[in-house]
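Problem: given the chain below (523 residues), write out its structure.
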Amino acid sequence: MSGRADAIADAYDVGEMATQPKGVVAAGHTVTAQAAAEILAEGGNAFDAALAGLAAACVPEVVLASIGGGGFLMAHVAARDETILYDFFADTPLSKGPLSDLDFRAIEADFGPATQEFHIGAGATATPGFVPGLYAVHGDLCTLPMERLLEPAIRTAREGVEMSAFHAYLFTVIAPILTASEAARALFAPGGRLLEAGETYRNPALADTLEALAREGEALFREGAVGKAIVAQSRELGGYLTQDDLARYRVARRKPLSWRFRESSIAFNPPPAASGALIALGLALAHKRADNGEGLDAAALAEIMAETNRARARLAGDRVFDEAALSAHLAALEGATLASRGTTHISVIDAAGNAAAGTISNGEGNGLLVDDYGFMLNNMLGEEDLNPGGFHCWRPGTRLSSMMAPTLVRMDDGGLIALGSGGSNRIRTAILQVLLNLLAHGMALEEAVAAPRIHLEKCGTLSLEGELEEGQKSHLIAAHGNNANVWPERNMFFGGVHAAARWPDGRLEGAGDPRRSGVVLLV
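Solution.
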């Protein structure tokens, strides 16, 4: 890490609470959090800080984040008492070409105990929304120039960042993607091997690209040099993307899915995202259990997850407890194609009460760097979850659905919490459990995030963290038999919930998930 970055870090308190700070940041990497904190310290608001953090994440969290991907940002604007969901996730291309011309190939990611097949190549790439998303939020909500917000990312890319053990591990998981092309190998595996923990990762080409973006604006990625390079690569190597795809992409500003639970109003990611409606369903099931005098232990959570899985399968089927609004949201998911893999999240709240929860993803990356611009495009069309009926069956020109779930909680007493998570289909169960820990069990923020989790797959496999209370763990193992999978300790499999809070007395607090190297900075 550079001397300047160390000096920036030394200027902030790292801990749980501060009485009169400018803001709080919770993110998945120290550099990501520092970028946001640097902007808060200079007087930027939560939205300025969140954009700086999301851009910076594309350097140290390169497996999870890229300017060639997309995501969502939930924004609460204190002065207007308004909450907006910015959807800048990927679109399916506007047209399809012959499959015989397509660059679309399978690789295996190695998670250690298991492997998983992903698909990469130019033909796996959907229309990226990351850059349009940055500029949409910036134009609506930010106070500092984009040039300033991109400075931390540019500096980090040029000067380099030390590889953490966690992100070096992620390199090994998707090694076939990071070594799929000569340019990728030169960046991620110089000297013939992947970068390891403690070594320095630099990306001067990305720094140059971000500097050009700061000068030229969003047009650089539409009709400008980068956009032309994306289209040329797609045409040459066998992809779908055309100039029309980039030119016609639009960021969607959506009204959040609003849900009441206990003494709180919760803003969820609305359709076409699948996450919000399913988390709301989980809360509705929990509320019904409480009304019936039933508990909310781990066994109850497993039952709630099972019912949520059934609701996801039937989508617009029978109403669940006659919640007409929830039924309508589930119905809105009908036909939506789902994509979400490698993800990261940042939560920011400033002293004025503005809040930003931003979650971004690049899938796993398509294995190809865009010319000399230092970034990899997404492989969202190579996601198995996206194509339950088989690959290449997506509808042209549609926004992909996602399990990404940036979420805002507004308590009746004036408290405010911003949170979100990475973790593919575990995102919704991670968010659900943290919300229940906070709002039903009365846990403190850090305790709620760190508490052991479970996750039930639609196939019936139950995963649980070994630190779960022994009686509950034994009950679950007995109930699920061979379908119970006990993880010995907290693991990234169960998501990475990074949360920021502003309490009624004005205190700011943050919690970074230890499962995904969470970091909290108070400025």
